[in-house]
Amino acid sequence: MNGLKVYKTIMQIFCKEECNMSVLCCDGLSTELMYGLKSHDKVRILDVYSDPLGWNNSNSIALLSVEKFEEQFTNFEGLICFYSLSSFLIHNGIEEMYKVLHRMLRNNSNLQILALLYCDVHNRRDINLLERIATTVLEVPLDADNTLLSTVHYSSGKVSSKSVEYKISQNYEFNLFSDIKITNKAAPVKKPDPTANLTFNLRLRDEEKEARNRIQLPYTKVQS
């Protein structure tokens, strides 16, 4: 649920800017997804969830088809929201979906894609392949609250990753989104050993100390 909450919060940013948006709902009701988000006339909902098999003569099957998807959004300018991209990958396969998304983003500089992906559904190879065409990846761990891993892919080929702490309001706005500073404890400083680099050893073993104490030096008067 944390991943969906972050996803909706990013959607809210685009909703407030009143961007041209097409929302593909495959994993839930559109009313539940859009609840709490600012609605405007430029938001278009494409409902696949309510009739996924097209039994009601809807175009749900066509929307899930990667060929029809590319045909419908070839010249689209704005943001396409996948809820979720996992459903499209299961229906079409990673190779076809990757090629279509890569081609659309390469040929249309006015197109943006926001996708929710369930990493536990796919293998690491498929995830890595999709990350190649992503500019920003926000990974929300299942066992961590209010922290995520942000990875940015630059056009130069540089990749930057950092841990981020975040807080989301009831209105799906980021109250906090800041880097987590990792404080490293200073290692204890060892006192220098003056005998460490000597070629002979000035330190005596216990048996050497005992032997030294038994030695009688010349002109030493022994108490009887």
Q: Can you describe what's shown?
A:
With 224 residues, the protein is α/β, with parallel strands linked by helices. The protein has one domain: 3-Layer(aba) Sandwich (Rossmann fold). Helices cover 32% and strands 21% of the residues. The chain has eight helices and eight strands; from the N terminus they run H-E-H-E-H-H-E-H-H-E-H-E-E-E-E-H. A four-stranded parallel β-sheet has the order 2-1-3-4, sandwiched between helices. Strand 6 and strand 7 form a beta hairpin. Helix 4 (66-73) packs parallel to helix 6 (94-107) and helix 5 packs across helix 6 (94-107). The longest helix is centred in the N-terminal third of the chain and has 15 residues, at 2-16. The N and C termini lie far apart (91 Å). One of its GO terms (biological process) is tRNA wobble uridine modification. This is Elongator complex protein 5. It is found in: Cytoplasm; Nucleus. It holds the Pfam family Elong_Iki1. One of its GO terms (cellular component) is nucleus.
